[in-house]
Amino acid sequence: MDFEAFFKSELDSLHQEGRYRVFADLERHRGSFPRATRHTPEGPKEVTVWCSNDYLGMGQHPAVIAAMHEAIDHCGAGAGGTRNISGTTHYHVLLEQELADLHGKESALVFTSGYISNWATLGTLGQKIPGLIIFSDALNHASMIEGIRYAKCDRVIWKHNDLNDLEAKLAAADPNAPKLIAFESVYSMDGDIAPIKEICDLADKYGAMTYLDEVHAVGMYGPRGGGIAEREGLMDRLTIIEGTLGKAFGVMGGYIAASTALCDFIRSFASGFIFTTALPPTLAAGAIASIRHLKASPFERVRHQDRVKKLRSLLDARGIPHMHNPSHIVPIMVGDAAKCKWISDILLDSFDIYVQPINYPTVPRKTERLRITPTPLHSDGDLERLVDGVHQLWSRCALARAVA
Ligand SMILES: *Cc1c(COP(=O)(O)O)cnc(C)c1O
């Protein structure tokens, strides 16, 4: 086989479908986020970033940076091994205590990413619990889908956030089979929020465990940043809460929080936990500082919600359609793949505004969008420049306006 020709022809078809991904070559500057330098063939340019998942700007918070400096000066660069073979540092132990406390659980277990935490936990539960059926929301993240696939257990996909469909599927399953319901709190692309309480009620009724991915909520919701389940007083009703250290906490890594026995079980049986080098102590130290700061400080969360509200009202004033949802994710609905990509390109090249277009297959065709994530660090002027740019390009594309 001509391998090179194969790779190229597969890439060509991505180009033809307009799905080829181009990464913006950015350099973030501590102290000036959301500003960044973009490296282009014509030289460097200053841009404003509008699509970062560093939702609160904690990636440059002085407390986080100081903790990371201290850890690297104190104990060097890498962890030096898997958690089992000399890779567990005191920072990992403290981080797991901090996370268990954040979610009101007995224990927590840290992984190298949120992706791995979903994949390893769901995969291990599905492989090890005899006859387990996993009920998975249709819009669950790729990492959950891959974990369930790897488990090779029975799986049932229920319609997104649809309690009637979930109940019908639970009722249709063998009443004696062990069950687990896997879902997210805030969904990344539409920014909608799951009915967590009602899902927990169904779980109780049918004897199922619950697995909640709070990746897009931790740090941002609840009095201490414990997520939507904390805000709604539901943390004790969830069997497992999963989160990331890489988005609102601004660092990197993933975790689950659950009972001591469950965390110990995953620690002891999950290949994706056991056979990989532990997070560097610097990352664990930075995450601890970030979580501690956000537990005590409502400032970032209040300012974040204020920025979101302000952006929505500026968009409404110009009649630019955006999806109305109860979260911090503001999807501006373009509804056309070529126009979505074009607006994003021109915003970047002519307005120095960076927002990645979201096209199929990430979202369904005809719902192509610009997914805007305002942070506490975007100023009023930033918001106005963004909406002004989108407004001008909206007219040039002859896109419909929303009726105010
Ligand atoms: C980003 C994401 C993950 C993966 O987390 P990482 O820490 O980035 O690996 C898991 N679940 C959802 C819903 C996500 O959006």
TrEMBL record:
<comment type="similarity">
    <text>Belongs to the class-II pyridoxal-phosphate-dependent aminotransferase family.</text>
</comment>
<keyword id="KW-0012">Acyltransferase</keyword>
<dbReference type="InterPro" id="IPR015424">
    <property type="entry name" value="PyrdxlP-dep_Trfase"/>
</dbReference>
<dbReference type="InterPro" id="IPR015421">
    <property type="entry name" value="PyrdxlP-dep_Trfase_major"/>
</dbReference>
<dbReference type="Pfam" id="PF00155">
    <property type="entry name" value="Aminotran_1_2"/>
</dbReference>
<protein>
    <recommendedName>
        <fullName>5-aminolevulinate synthase</fullName>
        <ecNumber>2.3.1.37</ecNumber>
    </recommendedName>
</protein>
<dbReference type="GO" id="GO:0003870">
    <property type="term" value="F:5-aminolevulinate synthase activity"/>
</dbReference>
<comment type="pathway">
    <text>Porphyrin-containing compound metabolism; protoporphyrin-IX biosynthesis; 5-aminolevulinate from glycine: step 1/1.</text>
</comment>
<dbReference type="InterPro" id="IPR015422">
    <property type="entry name" value="PyrdxlP-dep_Trfase_small"/>
</dbReference>
<keyword id="KW-0663">Pyridoxal phosphate</keyword>
<feature type="domain" description="Aminotransferase class I/classII large">
    <location>
        <begin position="46"/>
        <end position="388"/>
    </location>
</feature>
<dbReference type="InterPro" id="IPR050087">
    <property type="entry name" value="AON_synthase_class-II"/>
</dbReference>
<keyword id="KW-0808">Transferase</keyword>
<dbReference type="InterPro" id="IPR004839">
    <property type="entry name" value="Aminotransferase_I/II_large"/>
</dbReference>
<dbReference type="InterPro" id="IPR001917">
    <property type="entry name" value="Aminotrans_II_pyridoxalP_BS"/>
</dbReference>
<comment type="subunit">
    <text>Homodimer.</text>
</comment>
<dbReference type="GO" id="GO:0006782">
    <property type="term" value="P:protoporphyrinogen IX biosynthetic process"/>
</dbReference>
<dbReference type="InterPro" id="IPR010961">
    <property type="entry name" value="4pyrrol_synth_NH2levulA_synth"/>
</dbReference>
<keyword id="KW-0350">Heme biosynthesis</keyword>
<dbReference type="GO" id="GO:0030170">
    <property type="term" value="F:pyridoxal phosphate binding"/>
</dbReference>
